[in-house]
Amino acid sequence: MTPGWQFCPCCAARLAACEEGGLPRLACSAGCGFVHWDNPAPVLAALVEYQGRVVLARNRAWAAGAFGLISGFLERGEDPVAGVAREVKEELGLNTLATTLIGVYPFARKHEVIIAYHVVGQGEIGLNEELAEFRLIAPEKLKPWDFGTGLAVSDWLARRSGV
């Protein structure tokens, strides 16, 4: 369970541990019916292909040399394809020409579910305030990492090479 929930957001009573739906949950101790389901947050990730290369970006909060895919949270009521196009536009300033689902991946460490797409971007790259820098990597030089969005990179490379 995600730490931090102590009180019911409906009636302010203390939350208590219980079993609901076959899993440990927190529920209202006063019996108002509130259950904290603790569902993971949906995150969109874009493997952006730009002029035949893949864009990797470094978030300002990350250590020097740490790069990843473009990503952000899916907004309430938003279609995932529209959401990934929004993230690419917000973070890189690029328009999205084509979007193909790569896959859906658990990211338990951050309590997220990643919905990853391959997108073809067009325009001129302009980083927003979240990003410090970017790199353009030839697909044959791209090395996947073994967690989070790196799993999508691995799957995309395997499909691309016909494996």
TrEMBL record:
Keywords attached to this entry: Hydrolase, Magnesium, Metal-binding
Gene3D superfamilies: Nucleoside Triphosphate Pyrophosphohydrolase
Cross-referenced InterPro entries: NAD-cap_RNA_hydrolase_NudC (IPR050241), NUDIX_hydrolase-like_dom_sf (IPR015797), NUDIX_hydrolase_CS (IPR020084), NUDIX_hydrolase_dom (IPR000086)
KW Nucleus (keyword) present: no
Residue ranges occupied by any Nudix hydrolase domain in the UniProt entry: 38-159
Cofactor(s) needed by this chain: Mg(2+)
Pfam families to which the protein is assigned, alphabetical: NUDIX
Protein name as catalogued: NUDIX domain-containing protein
Organism: Candidatus Accumulibacter phosphatis
Native organism taxonomy: Bacteria, Pseudomonadati, Pseudomonadota, Betaproteobacteria, Candidatus Accumulibacter
